[in-house]
């Protein structure tokens, strides 16, 4: 019982730290697996950034304001050449280009978009505009693993309605429902060199009456490397 209380306290402490950093630093987001990004987004695209059409929208730009909003943060608008729409075809239609607004807070968090680079972008539609915030998935397409590319093409969407992914901050969480995959992010939170095998090589899939992590050979090998790295760090 004592160990359970200690683990719960550690988890609570980590959550408090995250929330404080979220409010104060604006560069920390709750961990989200690529499958979660895909399932929660209104659109997922592969696009090339055309910076020559970049412009800045201020807080007073009425196009960005919701009907009851008086304080929308600054956004940068990028013209993007759409190479592939993985989700949101009904929103974007047959467009070859789109104007996408990206939170300027991301610039201080390592998320500036680079000219002529191709990215995978997940985001939402707001008042007929396409928006990407600093906690959405923004990654150079060339940096995606093979499993991630397969995921955004057709695999992630298979279990959006039937499986859930739950991040675990203390490394000893238990699934509360059979349709939950536990994602241990404790090492990633505390050590930047921690391998994120689940994000790079796996997805949460339906298995009989519940859900589990898909275990291809690349995932198994990554997990073995992660265990070895953890073992080597033990004094």
Question: Would you summarize the structure shown here?
Answer:
Disulfide bonds join 27-109, 29-135, 39-160, 163-211, 168-173, 181-204. The chain has 235 residues and is of the alpha+beta class.
Q: Do you know the CATH topology of the largest domain? A: OB fold (Dihydrolipoamide Acetyltransferase, E2P)
CATH architecture type of the largest domain: Beta Barrel
**How many separate domains?**
2
The number of strands is 10
Overview of the structural elements:
- The protein is of the alpha+beta class and 235 residues long.
- The chain has 2 domains: 36-143, OB fold (Dihydrolipoamide Acetyltransferase, E2P); 162-233, Tissue inhibitor of metalloproteinase-1. Chain B, domain 1 (Alpha-Beta Complex), CATH 3.90.370.
- 30% of the residues lie in helices and 29% in strands.
- It has 7 helices and 10 strands.
- Strands 1-2-3-5-4 form a 5-stranded mixed barrel. Strands 7-8 form a two-stranded parallel sheet. Strands 9-10 form a two-stranded antiparallel sheet.
- A hairpin with a 2-residue loop joins strand 4 and strand 5.
- It starts with a helix and ends with a helix.
